[in-house]
């Protein structure tokens, strides 16, 4: 552990996944931390609003490992997904492994459980205080002053800190306050697609209704269904589709005929009544992508996780990248001995362009998951990647592996893929010339 010259007062706005993780890292270095969370204590509630499972991969695991939580969350309570299982309309299955060379998998973990474990872990540090039902109303980020609404009493509460960490999610109030500063750039994009959560029950004898070690996908061109296994042998997934498709699914009949046409095998597993009940329980949710720069104000405020780089969920990297933000901050605290005048600008320098890169990759992966995965050219490219990765695993790392199974920065992941594309295009060109030359020699 780094030596701490001065114990700082850290205010973390948002006690979601990234905020709770950040509290552990800062408290581990001896700082005094207060988490201010808008909602009530998730540990006292039965269910959580958003999707109930998440795919955890290398970047997230490395962060959990640093605070000794990897074992309990991944090894004991995570469900290994070794590849995608593609379902066609006739119910035929095709498995595409994530990493047939090194056998890496990604892990499905319950979102609520993850949050509970992180909050419990944070609370165990002596310097950590958790305040629920506190909504950030306003802040002077340079002076470290904040005003919260206590949603229980309706009273306002003033607070002060040496460092404010905005871990308050995609619609971050801290980011909104930052956006009034000169030279702060921010762009938000809602995609035209939304999602509805659908769960698949376990079988009568308490088994998985489909292979329990895969992320299941029903790619249908402009829309798709996905499903991730849960520890209790159910699956939870989503229908991702354009809102104009959801507009047509307003009645029971329309919904059942849509599922019979596009996802007949899934309909059978979910059951008609169950599907209708789940589907009409909630409105389709929107998906947003946020790119901003910088991520900090002076030495007193910084945004992390979705507050800094919310992204569409198709690379399963939102939480993983948010966890990696905290690892990067921790690495910088080690290097600069908790001198935030040096740490925060460096964090923006290292992380902003990377945040933009993973937002772009996540957008790209939606097209891959719902459409490209069924194409021969995609499968051929996967095959070439596999052969080259087997032959030269340290030299040729497929894009998916680089994102999910390494800590290569996201810009480098894209640059590496562009280089691979160029190598393959050039090779095809020269093989073509060679082929025609041999053909000409033989024929003439
Ligand atoms: P959040 O989890 O949104 O937490 C923010 C917290 O701040 C909340 O608790 C909120 O109540 C609180 N808050 C908000 N405003 C205030 C305020 N004014 N004052 C005080 N508190 C406030 N990521 C993955 O890595 N893998 C996946 O498989 C994956 N799947 C996903 C599937 C779907 C359908 C979606 C929508 C997202 C998925 N993600 C996934 C992304 C992941 O959910 C997010 O990246 C992650 O939750 C971000 O964590 P966070 O702590 O930054 O934000």
Automatic annotation (TrEMBL):
<dbReference type="GO" id="GO:0070189">
    <property type="term" value="P:kynurenine metabolic process"/>
</dbReference>
<protein>
    <recommendedName>
        <fullName>Kynurenine 3-monooxygenase</fullName>
        <ecNumber>1.14.13.9</ecNumber>
    </recommendedName>
</protein>
<dbReference type="InterPro" id="IPR027545">
    <property type="entry name" value="Kynurenine_monooxygenase"/>
</dbReference>
<comment type="similarity">
    <text>Belongs to the aromatic-ring hydroxylase family. KMO subfamily.</text>
</comment>
<keyword id="KW-0274">FAD</keyword>
<keyword id="KW-1133">Transmembrane helix</keyword>
<keyword id="KW-0496">Mitochondrion</keyword>
<keyword id="KW-0662">Pyridine nucleotide biosynthesis</keyword>
<dbReference type="GO" id="GO:0043420">
    <property type="term" value="P:anthranilate metabolic process"/>
</dbReference>
<keyword id="KW-0472">Membrane</keyword>
<dbReference type="GO" id="GO:0005741">
    <property type="term" value="C:mitochondrial outer membrane"/>
</dbReference>
<keyword id="KW-0503">Monooxygenase</keyword>
<comment type="pathway">
    <text>Cofactor biosynthesis; NAD(+) biosynthesis; quinolinate from L-kynurenine: step 1/3.</text>
</comment>
<keyword id="KW-0560">Oxidoreductase</keyword>
<dbReference type="GO" id="GO:0019805">
    <property type="term" value="P:quinolinate biosynthetic process"/>
</dbReference>
<dbReference type="GO" id="GO:0034354">
    <property type="term" value="P:'de novo' NAD+ biosynthetic process from L-tryptophan"/>
</dbReference>
<keyword id="KW-0285">Flavoprotein</keyword>
<dbReference type="GO" id="GO:0004502">
    <property type="term" value="F:kynurenine 3-monooxygenase activity"/>
</dbReference>
<feature type="transmembrane region" description="Helical">
    <location>
        <begin position="423"/>
        <end position="443"/>
    </location>
</feature>
<dbReference type="InterPro" id="IPR036188">
    <property type="entry name" value="FAD/NAD-bd_sf"/>
</dbReference>
<comment type="function">
    <text>Catalyzes the hydroxylation of L-kynurenine (L-Kyn) to form 3-hydroxy-L-kynurenine (L-3OHKyn). Required for synthesis of quinolinic acid.</text>
</comment>
<dbReference type="GO" id="GO:0006569">
    <property type="term" value="P:L-tryptophan catabolic process"/>
</dbReference>
<feature type="domain" description="FAD-binding">
    <location>
        <begin position="9"/>
        <end position="329"/>
    </location>
</feature>
<dbReference type="Pfam" id="PF01494">
    <property type="entry name" value="FAD_binding_3"/>
</dbReference>
<keyword id="KW-0521">NADP</keyword>
<dbReference type="InterPro" id="IPR002938">
    <property type="entry name" value="FAD-bd"/>
</dbReference>
<keyword id="KW-0812">Transmembrane</keyword>
<dbReference type="GO" id="GO:0071949">
    <property type="term" value="F:FAD binding"/>
</dbReference>
């Amino acid at each position: 552990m780094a030596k701490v010259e001065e114990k700082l007062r850290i205010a973390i706005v948002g006690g979601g996944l990234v905020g709770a993780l950040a509290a552990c890292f800062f408290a581990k270095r001896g700082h005094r931390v207060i988490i201010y969370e808008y909602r009530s204590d998730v540990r006292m509630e039965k269910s959580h609003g958003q999707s109930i499972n998440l795919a955890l991969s290398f970047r997230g695991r490395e962060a959990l490992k640093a605070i000794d939580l990897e074992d309990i969350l991944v090894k004991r309570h995570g469900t290994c997904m070794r590849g995608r299982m593609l379902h066609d309309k006739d119910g035929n299955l095709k498995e595409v492994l994530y990493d047939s060379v090194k056998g890496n998998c990604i892990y499905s973990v319950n979102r609520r459980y993850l949050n509970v474990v992180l909050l419990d872990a944070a609370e165990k540090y002596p310097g950590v205080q958790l305040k629920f039902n506190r909504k950030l109303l306003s802040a002077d980020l340079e002076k470290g002053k904040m005003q919260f609404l206590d949603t229980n009493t309706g009273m306002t509460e003033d607070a002060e800190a040496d460092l404010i960490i905005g871990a308050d999610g995609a619609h971050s109030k801290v980011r909104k306050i930052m956006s009034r500063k000169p030279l702060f750039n921010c762009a938000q994009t809602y995609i035209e697609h939304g999602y509805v959560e659908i769960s698949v029950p376990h079988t009568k004898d308490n088994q998985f209704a489909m292979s329990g070690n895969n992320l299941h996908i029903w790619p249908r061109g402009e829309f798709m269904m996905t499903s991730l296994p849960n520890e209790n042998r159910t699956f939870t997934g989503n229908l991702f589709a354009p809102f104009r498709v959801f507009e047509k699914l307003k009645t029971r009949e329309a919904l059942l005929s849509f599922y019979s046409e596009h996802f007949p095998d899934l309909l059978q597993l979910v059951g008609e009544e169950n599907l209708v009940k789940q589907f009409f329980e909630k409105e389709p949710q929107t998906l947003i992508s946020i790119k901003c720069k910088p991520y900090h104000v002076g030495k007193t405020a910084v945004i992390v996780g979705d507050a800094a780089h919310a992204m569409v969920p198709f690379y399963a990297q939102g939480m993983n990248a948010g966890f990696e933000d905290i690892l990067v901050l921790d690495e910088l605290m080690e290097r600069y001995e908790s001198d935030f005048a040096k740490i925060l600008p460096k964090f923006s320098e290292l992380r902003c362009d990377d945040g933009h890169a993973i937002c772009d990759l996540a957008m790209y992966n939606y097209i891959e998951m719902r459409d490209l995965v069924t194409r021969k050219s995609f499968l051929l490219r996967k095959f070439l990647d596999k052969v080259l990765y087997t032959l030269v695993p340290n030299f040729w790392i497929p894009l998916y592996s680089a994102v999910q199974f390494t800590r290569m920065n996201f810009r480098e992941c894209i640059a590496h893929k562009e280089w691979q594309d160029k190598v393959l295009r050039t090779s095809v060109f020269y093989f073509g010339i060679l082929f025609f030359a041999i053909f000409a020699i033989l024929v003439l």
